[in-house]
Amino acid sequence: MRRASLAALSVLAALLLAVGCASEPDESASDAASDPEPPHEEDETDDADGEQTGTASQDDEGEDAEGEGAEGEGAEEDPDDDAPDVDPAEVGANELGDVPILMYHRLREDGGGEYDRTPEGFRAELEWLFANDYVPVTIADLLDGALDLPAGTSPVVLTFDDSPSEHAQLDEDDEPEPDTALGILHDVAEDHDVEPVAVWSVLPNPFGGDPDEAERIMRWLHDQGHELANHTCRHEPLSGRDDDDVAEDVLCGERVITDAVPEAEVRTFTLPLGVWPDERSLAYEGTTDEGDYSHDAVLLVGANPAPSPFASDFDPRDLPRIRTGSWDGGDPDFESEFWLDVLEDDPDRRFVSDGDPDSVAFPEELADRLDADHEDRARPYARD
Fold first, then answer.
1. Which fold would CATH assign to domain 91-381?
2. Is 26:69 a contact under the CB 8 Å cutoff?
3. Residues 6 or more apart from 72 whose CB is under 8 A from it?
4. 3-state DSSP call for residue 178?
5. Domain map of the chain by residue range?
6. For residue range 113-139, what is the model confidence (pLDDT) as tens digits?
7. Contacts within 8 Å (CB) and 24+ apart, 40-45
8. What predicted TM-score, i.e. pTM, was given to this entire model?
């Protein structure tokens, strides 16, 4: 009996010794947990890991102490983890600056009319834009405030009206034909590592007149992140026309798109020839016997940059565009080269991103431009 008791005591002592060794704190894990976690780009992933792990303690099971201590590096959040990596002052961020919405029509070797460009002139303008830190976005991006741009870059919207054949063609492999506006855009964008997106205001049987090919191109544009915009069916001035006639024409233009791409959300209406209907509201909403339509944005013809989508004077149903064209440096002609030069020279005019899509950064002296709806995202800063 005494021998059994001694044996039991020996086993108990061994167990106590084992537990005591296992519960000693892991020094390497404690040291790791005491160092602040440096900021990461993927904060959300880091936060999720931090919630599930912790530093090893003397109460942890011995077999888990080392593993949990290593994972505990992410448990203590640095208060700066969620802060943007870029100082807005360093990049001259101004997300209350203006956004150029450029307007293109025909691309013609002879230069065409005053609204047209040569293919070489179009390519040169894109080269300048992307080399000078402009990044293409869509009107839908402006409407949603979804401007996820690299720090120090600026948004530009490229809009193409009337859908002639030289705007977009696809080869048998579904690649843009290189001599079209779409092909040139993709070529230059690839050289500058930017997304080649644009807004295409289409008419019936766009891009050459073949219905099947038109549907194929519109489907491709939609799937690649481009935006399709309503431009009516008749492409005639909307003024001086009966309200029902206007509404039917606008609805017809919307169905040019939705018949080809049923899931497309047609949010933008481009005024034909830049002329408003007598009842202006018909440009963005209307009812007919055939159905209803509603648009979030209306594009004008001229003749200056658009306000920031975060600015108090941003009106999506009255968005000005800039006619593409050259400038000789003399009297203002209000075409693209003139306005791009103005934006280049005036940091208070040009929209410049801070690289953080969740904030609106701007010099503090421009705070009166901010729309109240975006005050919770405001990131004013003092210039050096």
1. TIM Barrel (3.20.20)
2. yes
3. 29, 32, 33, 53, 54, 55, 56
4. coil
5. 2-74, 91-381
6. 989 999 999 999 999 999 999 999 999
7. 40/81, 41/85, 43/81, 43/82
8. 0.79
